[in-house]
Design a protein that fits this description.
The chain has 13 helices and 22 strands. The chain has two domains: 267 residues, FAD/NAD(P)-binding domain; 154 residues, Translation factors (Elongation Factor Tu (Ef-tu), domain 3, Beta Barrel), CATH 2.40.30.10. It binds flavin-adenine dinucleotide. Flavin-adenine dinucleotide binds next to helix 1, strand 2, helix 2 and helix 13.
C-alpha cells in the first residue's frame, strides 16, 4: 500500500506539512531518524521558541538570504508566507490553546516560554489528524518506480515504504547533535536536483588572532544597537545594525549573526565601538574638542567619558598602538583619527576586525545553501524536476535572520508543501483509478 504523502524529516517543516496534508484528507507518514521529533524546535530560542516575528508579513521578505540574486529568497517565499503568515501562525496556535506573546523587539514566543508546548501542539494535531509518525528511521535512499516514491530506510533493501508523493523536509547541516544530517542534499541530488553548497549561517565570526588579542578580555561585553558592515577587498558588501557581543574568539550577537551570511574568511568586519556616535568626521571633531579641553587626562579616561566601556577603551588603545597611560595632550593626530574611525558608525566607520573564519556546524544556527530556488515552484513547493516531489524548510536554499524568521519559513513552506502534496496525491490516485 502506498501512502498519499511521505514526509522525510520530523522537524517543524515536516510535521506541519504532514498535518496540512492530513487536513486535506491525505494519509500522511512522517519518517524521523532521531528517537524524538522536533529536537531543533525544542532548542530554539534557548528553549523558549521564538517561533515568528510581529509586524506585517510583507516586512518579512528582506529578512531572508539565498538564491542567486539579491531579494530572490524573499520573492520565492512570498506565496508561502502570504498563504500562511505570522498572524495565521499566531491564530493557529492560540485557537489550539497555546497563547503567544510579542516582545518589544518584535520576537514572538509562547507565553509559557516553553518550546515543548509548541512541539506538543504539533504532535497532538498530527495525532488527531491520524498522521503516522515513525521515529528512529533514517531515510537512506529514494527512487521512483511506476510514478511512486520508493523510500529505503535501511541499508538492506527490505525496509521500504512507498508514497504517491514525497515531501523532503530534512533540514540543513547545522547542529548535528539535534538531528541535522545533511542527507536532504544527497537525497535531492539523487532525484536530479542541483544543490547550492551548504555553508554555516547565523554563525559567530572568529577574528584573526593577532588582531583580536587586545579584545580577548572583553568577552561578554555587548554593544547595543551597533552598526556593523562587511568589507571585501576594500569594498562594502553588506551592513547591519543591532546588538554585538564580544566572545573569546571574536564577535557574535544578533547583528553579527545576521551579517554572517555575507561573511567569508579574509573579509573585514567593521563594528562601531561607540554606537550612535555619528560619522568619522563628527566623531573626530568630538574627540579633538575633548583632547583640547582635558589634555592632562588619559585618553582611556576620555574614551570612557564618551561612553566606551573601560575594557573596550583599554583594548582599543592597544589595538591602535597606544599605551594605557597615554595622556590626551600626547595623542598623535593619526592615532586620534584611528580612534575616531573605530568609534564611528556610518560610511567606512567602525573598528576593523579581520575575519579568520566563521563558527562551524556546531555553532551556526542555520544552513545557507541547499536546493536551488529556481528548481522549486514557489506557489506549491513542488520540484520543477520531478513531479510528486516537494520541499519544505531549511533544506531549501533559504536562510532567515534571527528573530523568528526561520521557523516562520519552516511553518509556511511546510504548510504549502503538505497542501500541494495532498492535492497531487489525490489527482494521482484518481488518474490511477480511471486508467
Ligand atoms: C540552537 C538553535 C536555536 C534556534 N532558534 C531559533 C529561533 O528561536 N527562531 C527561529 O526562527 N529559528 C531558530 N533556529 C532555526 C530553526 O530551528 C530551523 O531553521 C528550523 O528548525 C528548520 O526546520 P526544518 O523542519 O526545516 O528542519 P529541522 O528542524 O532541522 O528538522 C529536520 C528533521 O529531519 C530529520 N532528518 C534529517 N535527515 C533525516 C533522514 N535521512 N531521515 C529521516 N529524518 C531525517 C532531523 O532529525 C530533523 O528532525 C534555531 C536553530 C538552532 C540550531
Amino acid at each position: 500500500m502506498a501512502w498519499d504523502v511521505v514526509v522525510v524529516g520530523g522537524g517543524p517543516a515536516g510535521l506541519f506539512a504532514a498535518v496540512a496534508a492530513a487536513e486535506r484528507g491525505a494519509r500522511a507518514l512522517v519518517l524521523e531518524h532521531m528517537s524524538n521529533p522536533g529536537r531543533k524546535l525544542l532548542a530554539s530560542g534557548g528553549g523558549q521558541c521564538n517561533l515568528t516575528h510581529g509586524g506585517e508579513i510583507m516586512d518579512f521578505l528582506p529578512h531572508y538570504g539565498g538564491g542567486t540574486r539579491p531579494g530572490e529568497a524573499g520573492r520565492f517565499l512570498r506565496p508561502a508566507l502570504y498563504a500562511f503568515s505570522n498572524s495565521d501562525l499566531v491564530t493557529w496556535c492560540t485557537r489550539r490553546g497555546v497563547s503567544l506573546t510579542e516582545d518589544p523587539d518584535g520576537r514572538v514566543f509562547p507565553i509559557s516560554r516553553r518550546a515543548q508546548d509548541v512541539l506538543d501542539l504539533l504532535l497532538a494535531e498530527a495525532r488527531q489528524r491520524r498522521v503516522e509518525l515513525r521515529t528512529g528511521v533514517r531515510v537512506r535512499s529514494l527512487r521512483v518506480e511506476r510514478s511512486r516514491f520508493v523510500v529505503l530506510t535501511a541499508a538492506e533493501q527490505k525496509s521500504v515504504v512507498e508514497g504517491l508523493t514525497l515531501v523532503l523536509a530534512t533540514g540543513g547541516r547545522s547542529y548535528p547533535s539535534l538531528g541535522a544530517t545533511g542527507d536532504g542534499y544527497r537525497l535531492a541530488a539523487s532525484l536530479g536536483h542541483a544543490v547550492v553548497s551548504p555553508r554555516p549561517a547565523l554563525a559567530p565570526v572568529v577574528v584573526k588572532r593577532n588582531a583580536f588579542s587586545p579584545f580577548v578580555p572583553c568577552a561578554g561585553v555587548s554593544l547595543p544597537g551597533a552598526a556593523v558592515a562587511v568589507v571585501r577587498a576594500g569594498r562594502p558588501i553588506a551592513e547591519e545594525s543591532g546588538d554585538v557581543l564580544f566572545t573569546h574568539r571574536g564577535l557574535s550577537g544578533p547583528a553579527i549573526l545576521n551579517l554572517s551570511r555575507h561573511v567569508f574568511p579574509g573579509d573585514v568586519v567593521l563594528a562601531s565601538l561607540l554606537p550612535g556616535s555619528g560619522d568619522i568626521r563628527s566623531t573626530e571633531g568630538r574627540l579633538a574638542a575633548e583632547v583640547a579641553a582635558h589634555g592632562k587626562r588619559t585618553v582611556a579616561n576620555l574614551l570612557q567619558g564618551l561612553g566606551l566601556a573601560a575594557c573596550l577603551s583599554r583594548a582599543l588603545l592597544a589595538a591602535v598602538g597606544l599605551g594605557p597611560g597615554t595622556k590626551a595632550a600626547e595623542l598623535p593626530r593619526e592615532a586620534r583619527h584611528a580612534l575616531a574611525v573605530s568609534l564611528a558608525s556610518g560610511a567606512n566607520g567602525g573598528h576593523p576586525f579581520p575575519v579568520g573564519s566563521l563558527g562551524g556546524w556546531n555553532e551556526a544556527m542555520v544552513t545557507a545553501g541547499g536546493v536551488p530556488l529556481g528548481e522549486v515552484d514557489p506557489k506549491t513547493m513542488a520540484s520543477r524536476i520531478l513531479p510528486g516531489l516537494f520541499f519544505a524548510g531549511e533544506v531549501l536554499d533559504v536562510d532567515g535572520d534571527t528573530g523568528g524568521y526561520n521557523l516562520q519559513a519552516a511553518f509556511s513552506t511546510g504548510r504549502l508543501a503538505g497542501t500541494s502534496a495532498a492535492e497531487k496525491a489525490r489527482s494521482e490516485a484518481r488518474r490511477r483509478v480511471t486508467r
